[in-house]
Amino acid sequence: MNKKIIGLILTSLTTVLMSACNTVKMKSWTDPASTDRPIGKTIVLGVSESDTITRQYEDIFVARLLELGVSASSLHANHKVTDKLDKEALEALLKENNVDSIIVTRVLSETERNQVVTTGYDSTPYNNYWGYYDYGYSITFNTADVVSFMEFELETNLYDIDTEKLIWTGRKVVYDDRSDIKNMAGIIKSVVKDFRKEGFID
């Protein structure tokens, strides 16, 4: 098998691997007393080292909430915030705009992972236990490759403005095989799905 074909196989297998990884469900917790509480007027806040990613995330999240009929705005884009606010300034902004909830998302961890990917697939060994056992011993390092990728764990929190209490939190793991935009859209989709399940959004 020539190097070009092997490269194509590796690329395909890596894509399948990462696509499977990106299906990881969001793990979440909801305050039992807050179930079915309408999310109300909401501000979205992203916390990131990149201003561009922060603004993109907030814009995508706000657009999705608006589609669902939620009165939502971006802290940075709609309220002209360009730097970190102190507690008093943030409280004043939320009160002035009659905000009911605030959504905050940040990266919890970044971890480099390695995955061994074989360069081919043969269904024959699966036909019986001997074939599979024998085939396992025939695999060598020449028929496999190690693929490196970054794993990001993100946390999203929903706070009630009046009580300042956390009423929902969720974590999701994403990988760098997709663009930042697609990863952000995947996170937001999971959060919104859980919001709807808990009755925060109709």
Question: Can you put this structure into words, describing what you see?
Answer:
- The radius of gyration is 22 Å and the shape is elongated.
- The chain is an alpha/beta fold.
- The chain has helices spanning 3-21, 51-67, 87-96, 129-138, 180-197; strands spanning 27-30, 42-47, 72-74, 101-118, 144-160, 166-175.
- It has a single domain, classed as Rossmann fold.
- The chain starts with a helix and ends in a 5-residue tail after the last helix.
- Mean pLDDT is 79; it is low at 1-23.
- Helix 2 crosses helix 5 (180-197).
Keywords:
alpha/beta; six-stranded mixed sheet; Rossmann fold; 6 strands
Major sheet strand order: 1-6-5-4-2-3
Number of strands: 6
* Percentage of residues in strands: 25-35%
Shape: elongated
Q: Terminal Cα separation, in Å?
A: 55 Å
Largest sheet: 6 strands, mixed
What's the CATH architecture?
Answer: 3-Layer(aba) Sandwich
CATH homologous superfamily - what is it? ABC-type transport auxiliary lipoprotein component
Q: Could you estimate the helical fraction of the residues in percent?
A: 25-40%
Number of domains: 1
Mean pLDDT: 79
Which stretches of 5+ consecutive residues score pLDDT under 50? 1-23
Along the chain, the helix and strand elements come as: HEEHEHEHEEH
